[in-house]
Amino acid sequence: MTAFTYDPANASDEFPTYPYRLAPKGLATRRQLRAAGLRPGGHDAVAQILWRRGKRVAYLYRLDLAAPKRTATPAQREAIAKALRARRTCRHCGVVQPYYIPRRTGSCLDCTGGAR
User: Fold this and answer.
1) Which of 80, 5, 88 lies closest to 50 in space, CA to CA?
2) Number of domains in the chain
3) Among 75, 84, 97, 103, which residue's beta carbon has the most beta carbons within 10 A?
4) DSSP character for 51?
5) In the predicted model, what is the mean pLDDT of the chain?
6) Would you say 38 and 63 are in contact if contact means Cβ atoms under 8 Å apart?
7) pLDDT at 1 (0 to 100)
8) Residue 94 — very low, low, confident or very high, per pLDDT cuts 50/70/90?
9) 55 and 96, same domain (yes or no)
10) What whole-number distance in Å separates Cα of residue 104 and Cα of residue 52?
C-alpha cells in the first residue's frame, strides 16, 4: 500500500494531488458541478483529491470551463416515461404494477406466485 503524499506540484502522479477538503478555489468535483447546475463540458480533469489513505479519489474540474447541464427534450422525456412504464408492465397478464418487474422472471409477483 502506498502512503498518501500531498503533491500539488505533480512530481509523481499524472494530476496535482490535494488532501480532502483542501482543493484550491476554482476547482470542483462532478458532484459539486452537478449541484451547481453545471457539467465538465467535455474538458478533462485537472487535479484530484485523495482520501482514506489514498484508496478513494475524486477528480477535479475547472469551474471556468464548465458548461450548463443539458436538459432533456420533451420527446426524450416521453421516451424515458415509456421505457419505465414497460419495465413495470407484466408480460403475462399485461397489468402495470407499481414496482419494476423482475427481469429474471419477466412477470409480476402475482403471475409467478412469488408474493413474498
Assistant:
1) 5
2) 2
3) 97
4) E
5) 86
6) yes
7) 38
8) very high
9) no
10) 37
